[in-house]
Each structure stands twice: as C-alpha cells, then as structure tokens.
Amino acid sequence: MSGEQKHESRPLVYLTVKNEATAEYEVKRSRFIGYVKPVLTVDEAEEFIREIRAKHYAARHNVYAYLLSGGAAKYSDDGEPQGSAGLPVLECIKKAGLSDVCVVVTRYFGGILLGTGGLVRAYTQTAAAALEAAGVAVFQAYSELYFECSYSDYQRVLYELAGFGAIIDGAEYAESVKIRFAVKKADTDRVCETLLAVSAGRGRPEITGERYDSR
C-alpha cells in the first residue's frame, strides 16, 4: 500500500533534519533498520529509496515515507499490512514537525508475526529513533538582492543590513560599491524601503532570486 499527497506552497520557516542518520530496533527476531536523509526534491527522495533498496535487496520489506517543505508527501507499506508501516513512518515525520526529509525502514523478518499493532509500534519506534539521531536544522526563506551605492553611503548601508541580519554574499568595489546579499523574505519590503531612504533614492535594490538558509 502506498499513498501520495501534493501541495505547492512553501513556508517562510521550516524544520528539517541536520544530517543523515541510522537507528536499529529488534523485536521477536525481526530486525528494523531506519535510515534518514534530508532531501529537497521528489527525485532526491526516490533516489535515496532506491539506494537503500539496493543495499538491502535481501530484506523482506523496505518501507518508506517522505515529506517536502512544499507539502508533497508519499509513503509505501512495501508489502506490509495496509496502514501498518508507511503511514506510521509519515506520521512520525509530521509529529516531529519536520519536512524535506525521507525515511526508509528496512525489515528483516525474524519468522514471528508481529500483528498490525506490533508493526505500527516497531516502524514508529525505528523511524523516531533515526530522526532523533539526525538532529534538527531550522531553515528560513530568504530573498537575494543586488544593490549599488556610493562609497559615502556604503558604511550606512552595511549598518542597516546588519540590523536586518542580512547575509552578505559578495561585494564589488569600482566607481561605486555593488553588493549582493540575502535577507529574510518577510523583511524584504522593509529592507528595500530602508536602502532607498539611505541612498536618498540614488540606488534601487533589485530582487535577483530566493533561497532557503539555515543561518
């Protein structure tokens, strides 16, 4: 059994895992191995799932779930009873408040049936342990901007940008100073208004892109 959910909006702030991680759990001779990886796209998630399946090709089940920051989600029971494996792993991700993450739980069957309740507990516990081992990173949406100013305005511009917690990506010093930087998306309008005021309208900030950053 598998399921898929799609959603396109992306939040201003989201939590994801900091690192790849693994965790193991054993019950009634069945061995469960949980794998976690941060992913940004469906393709990255599917590639990770293929890697784990290839690594554990002899395993009875390779259950997975992933959830992206845009809301896209998918899970698979991979032959386990419906609702006993993939969905509990997905719910584990949601309960932790995480996204942009893929979890694969491999099961080597030990010859003793666990029942639906036992499977839910085993997959949930393995996924939760792997997610905890991976740690948490906070990502925020940033706007990337370009601004050209005079040398006389430069120090004031840097002062104002520092007040917004801007990330300076680079600067070019010629007849004027050309700065590339990023600010939290929620602050973009205020930053642009501030820079216009500082330069008395001589410089106009340009939004050149957007990204997520964990700083």
What oligomeric state do these chains adopt?
single chain
**pLDDT below 50 for ≥5 consecutive residues: which ranges?**
none
CATH topology (level 3) name of the largest domain: Ribosomal Protein S5, domain 2
The SS-based structural class is alpha+beta
Q: Return the CATH class of the largest domain.
A: Alpha Beta
**Average of the residue pLDDT scores:** 93
CATH architecture of the largest domain: 2-Layer Sandwich
Distance between the termini: 39 Å
Strand content: 35-45%
Total DSSP E strands: 11
Summed up, the helix count is: 5
Shape: rod-shaped
Question: In order across it, which strands form the biggest sheet?
Answer: 1-6-5-7-4-3
- What summary fits the major beta sheet? 6 strands, antiparallel
Overall number of structural domains: 2
Taking all Cα atoms into account, the compactness measure Rg is 23 Å
The sequence of SSEs as H and E is EEEEHEEHEHEHEEHE
Give the helix level as a range of percent.
Answer: 25-40%
Question: What is the CATH superfamily classification of the largest domain?
Answer: Impact, N-terminal domain
Description:
The chain folds into 2 domains: 2-134, Impact, N-terminal domain (Ribosomal Protein S5, domain 2, 2-Layer Sandwich); 141-213, Alpha-Beta Plaits (2-Layer Sandwich), CATH 3.30.70.240. By secondary structure, the protein is α+β, with helices and mostly antiparallel strands. The protein has a 6-stranded antiparallel beta sheet, with helices on both faces. Strands 2, 8, 9, 10 and 11 form a 5-stranded antiparallel beta sheet that branches. It has 5 helices and 11 strands, in the order E-E-E-E-H-E-E-H-E-H-E-H-E-E-H-E. It has helices at residues 42-55, 86-95, 115-134, 151-163, 188-198, and strands spanning 2-5, 13-17, 21-27, 30-38, 61-67, 73-76, 101-108, 136-149, 167-173, 177-184, 206-213. A hairpin with a 2-residue loop joins strand 3 and strand 4 (30-38). The model has no long low-confidence stretch (mean pLDDT 93). The longest helix has 20 residues, at 115-134.
